[in-house]
Amino acid sequence: MISQYETIFVYEKGCEHMASEHKPTLRVLSVLEQVSAGTGKYTLSELSRSLDIPVSTLFPIVRTLREHQYLDYDQAAQTYSLGYRLFEIGSRIQNTNAYESLVEMMWKIVDGCGETCHFGILDRGDVLYLAKVDPKQQPIRMYSMIGRRLAAYGTGIGKALLRDFTLEQLRETYPDGLRPLTAHTVTDFSELYRQLQEIKATGFAYENEESNESVRCIAVPVESGGRVAAALSVAMPVFRYDDRKKRCAEQLLRDAAGYAEKIVPHLHF
């Protein structure tokens, strides 16, 4: 590693320029690298000691990273961890073995039922879509993309992610209420909570044109460490949805969920 005091040379178009590493930038990078190491959760004091940076200097850096979602803050534990913005950027590379294994598994679901498969996580009440596989043989496909966000309560995959939420937690997560995405979106907290109890009982979450007027979806939670960490879904146009397709998707998703639980810890989100 180049020392912060070491001079480096930058060559551009045959010209030699002298430059030194930017100390404030190095501090920002050191914070991100430290948080990504060890337990992945640090208090401000722990970061200050580990990096030998005064709290008064460190706090503005941490606050800015948090505001831009490069760090997340657990208010109860008063700890910082890596934010989803980093994962959104990193996911564009999509070349890790874990990610490749995830996509390979999703292809098996798509090949088995002929419909689109999504993988996502919960971020501040939204589904953050991290992977998508479309069937090659279907002329009509789902309009969705990696990195897209949707209110979790309006999607099948989102309801799977919300499975363990209490009624109070739902109200805290959506202080402005459940705003409709379509005419079919659940807008009552009690009804949403009732559906979450059904997910606990059956293992499946369903969406019936709640985020898109022409789409139905079946989803399953993916657990890690005893909690819902992610979710998988199969989505399809309403006109292709029937009992046979429903049963096929449920079986494929049920089988995939157990395998996905082994992959999730290696995705580092």
Say how many strands there are: 10
What is the annotated CATH architecture of the largest domain?
2-Layer Sandwich
The helix fraction, in percent, is 25-40%
Please state how the strands of the largest beta sheet are arranged side by side: 7-6-5-10-9-8
Strand content: 15-25%
* Text of the CATH class of the largest domain: Alpha Beta
Name the assembly state. Answer: single chain
Overall mean pLDDT score? 86
Distance between the amino and carboxyl termini = 26 Å
Structural class: alpha+beta
Structure characterization notes:
The chain is an alpha+beta fold. The protein has two domains: 23-83, Arc Repressor Mutant, subunit A; 91-266, GAF domain (Beta-Lactamase, 2-Layer Sandwich). It has helices at residues 23-36, 44-51, 55-67, 84-90, 97-113, 156-161, 167-173, 189-202, 243-263; strands at 7-12, 15-20, 71-74, 79-82, 116-123, 126-133, 149-151, 205-208, 215-224, 227-237. The strands form three sheets. Strands 7-6-5-10-9-8 form a six-stranded antiparallel beta sheet. α5 (97-113) packs antiparallel against α9. Residues 1-18 have low confidence and may be disordered.
